[in-house]
Each structure stands twice: as C-alpha cells, then as structure tokens.
C-alpha cells in the first residue's frame, strides 16, 4: 500500500471557496462594524462502495455575530387593566376596551 499525503493546496476548488468565505467574512465585518468573525471549511471524504473511488466534497461557512436590539415602553401601564365584567385583562385603545387574549 502506498501512502499519499493530501493537502488543501492540492484541492484548488476548496481552497478558492475558503478564500472567498474569508473575503465575505471580512466584507460583512466592515459593513456591520463588527470586530470578530469565524470562517470554516469542512472537507468530507466518502469511498464509493462499488467502485472504491473516493469522493471529496467541501463546505464553507462564515459566522459574523450581529446583535440588534431596541427597547422602549409599548403602552402606558394605565392602558391595561382587569375588567371584572369581561373576566379578562383589557387594553384601552382610543377610548375602546380591547380584550387581551393569549
């Protein structure tokens, strides 16, 4: 049996895809003003059971964490109250009672 070393630079399509993933990550970091990202490549090797030939596939992935949030008060506390007749919480909108349901 002969041992053959396998290197990523011998797989130009996978290497090119990973380089593109790195470029996309850097572009998104710049656009979103983020200072951290991850890029990964997964190489999968499968041996065809009939022919015995290997099949090598790859997948690239990038992750640029972006957090967006907003905070505020949706309604005044006095607008939501318990109505004994309706046996429910109600919200007053433009002078009308609206029943709150889950």
Question: What this model shows, in words?
Answer:
- The chain is α+β, with helices and mostly antiparallel strands.
- The chain has two domains: 8-63; 72-102, no CATH class.
- It is 21% helix and 33% strand.
- It is built from one helix and five strands; from the N terminus they run αβββββ.
- The strands form two sheets. Strands 3-4-5 form a three-stranded antiparallel β-sheet, with no helix packed on it.
- The chain is elongated, with a radius of gyration of 29 Å.
- The mean pLDDT is 83.
Order of helices and strands: HEEEEE
Number of helices: 1
- Walk across the major sheet and give the strand order: 3-4-5
Radius of gyration computed on alpha carbons: 29 Å
Main beta sheet: strand number and arrangement?
3 strands, antiparallel
SS-derived structural category: alpha+beta
Annotation, overall tally of beta strands: 5
β-strand percent reads 25-35%
- Uncertain stretches: none
Distance between the termini: 68 Å
Q: Mean pLDDT across all residues, rounded?
A: 83
Write down the domain tally. 2
Task: Based on Cα principal axes, name the global outline.
Answer: elongated
Helix content: 10-25%
Provide the fold topology.
Elements: H1 12-32, E1 38-47, E2 54-63, E3 80-83, E4 88-93, E5 96-99
Antiparallel strand pairs: 1-2, 3-4, 4-5
């Amino acid at each position: 049996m002969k041992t053959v070393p396998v290197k990523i630079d011998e797989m130009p399509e996978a290497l090119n895809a990973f380089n593109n993933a790195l470029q996309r990550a850097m572009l998104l970091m710049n656009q979103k003003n983020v200072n951290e990202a991850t890029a990964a490549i997964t190489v999968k090797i499968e041996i065809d059971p009939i022919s015995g030939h290997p099949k090598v596939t790859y997948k690239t992935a990038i992750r640029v964490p972006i957090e967006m949030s907003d905070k505020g008060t949706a309604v005044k506390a006095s607008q939501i109250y318990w109505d004994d007749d309706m046996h429910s919480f109600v919200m007053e909108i433009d002078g009308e009672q609206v029943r709150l349901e889950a």
